[in-house]
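Z., the sequence and structure:
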Amino acid sequence: MEKLKERIGIDKTVICEIAIEKIDKDKLRKKSLQNGIYVNFVENEKSPIITENGIYVSELEIKDDSIGRLLIKHKQNNLTKKEIIICRMELLISGTKSNLQNLNADEYKSRVAQVFKKLENEYGVIIDSTDVSLKEIEINCTFKLQENWNKYRAALLLIAKNMPERYGNKNEVKFMSWQSVTSSGTVLENIHLKNKTTELKIYNKSKQIKDTYPDVQCDDDLIRIEYKIKDKRMIKSNFGSRRVSDITDDKINKLFRKYWQRDVVIPYLQWREENRNELLEKAKEHMSADIHWMSNFIRDCRQIEANRGLPLLFDIDDMRVIFRKLEPDNLKSAGNKFRRFRKRMEFESDLIGNTKRIKEIIYRIEEL
């Protein structure tokens, strides 16, 4: 089992600004006969795509699980009659089954060169990649969680529900249903937030690999956090250039951290401050109403979360600050009251450890 390098890096990309120089039709035909290879090659003398060896290409599509999908195509818009030329490649980062390990900038550039060399040597397709540029890019990081994945349900849901409005209302939170002899319930599988230009996915990478590639070994409880930038204008504005040759590790890291701060860290910190104030008022309300206030307080907090989606009491330990705010001049008394409260709440297991877990996810990124 290969050791995972926990880092921010590049995953799948779509590259463009490429052109066919030559095609060896015999080599292409022989390769198309191999199992697992898909080739669609159409010639048409009306096509403006002409190779150096005189071949008029109307369409060339190659699908190969070891490299990805190449599409060179000429078509005409039915309404405007405008000529359209498509030249793009959906590039996989690895020739192996699993994409567990991402690539740094230099490794990615080597991978691009390797793929074009494979197209030349095995398919007889020579590509001019002088100006090859990014059209889409996935940047991710994968790391091992300190606890079982299922314990992070509340933390991940809070991240999803705190997402900025820029992601609209088309977000998905997917659950996997499961049954066993001793228990039943729903397990969070992945979070997928998206708009026209950007997608953010947070999911159980270990499960995804084991479900898709049962023969591939990896650690349990691996979390993947993945940004997909679908707008080439955003790539250029963040990187300064879309050219593959201009990619650096510094640019990749800055982009990922910039979006992570914007989408997750800042919204969480804002929510935490607002939540503390609201939690303080709710605690005061119940303490003044009944000396045996704790049960009603917990019940009220759970009802509020059920009604609005966001939690009021996210973690029992969040009450430590509340007790200190209630008795700022007697922190010893506040500490004793918190410990009694925590003792009473020890069976509220879904409210224990959530703040520690969300901080683990949020701040683990800063260590990469």
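Residues 175-184 have pLDDT under 50 and may be disordered. The radius of gyration is 27 Å.

Let me know what you think.
H.
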